[in-house]
Design a protein that fits this description.
The chain is mostly helical. Helix content is 69%, strand content 3%.
Amino acid sequence: MSLRAETPAPPSARVHRFGRAERWVHRTTAVLMGVCVATAACLYIPQLAVLVGRRELVVRIHECVGLALPAPVLIGLASRAFRADLGFLNRFGPHDRLWLRAALRRDRRPEARPAAKFNAGQKIYAAWIAGATLVMLGTGLMMWFTHLTPLMWRTGATFVHDWLALTIGVVLAGHIGMALADPEARRGLRTGSVSREWAEREHPLWRP
């Protein structure tokens, strides 16, 4: 009886999810946000402040990177694909309400969480982090240019800036944790394509 080598199964079909512009914006924003969080931690956690030292340099890096944070998104607007994705992120439909209700009930069945290219959780996160970034930029400018606003405004800006920074850190930790739990989603942001099975399961309303 002759033994024949088994024919390897064909690789699963992959579908295009993100172009070069979307991936560049995400990576660059992630790097800038990471530097902002890291420098903020060095400024506010005494143990890190002592370990790193050179507080004035850390402050300058934090300020410059914070000012640059909106730049990737603004540059990305030159891409039609990126603008289209922003449109998807800003559009909520009836299926998004179903997704949110299932998430609140902790119902993880794919059929209970209908989603198009982006699910409701991703849309809410994108809107929240965009708004938080603008608030951080505004309050940061008030703290940096002290001669532009009265003391009471600067005191309020410092309070908002510090507590919102803490909130951003917590939300980012959750975002990273969810990304680590979904390797195919990470692969889509890294390579631009995802498996068709994943797309049909996680984003059944998406028509790539």
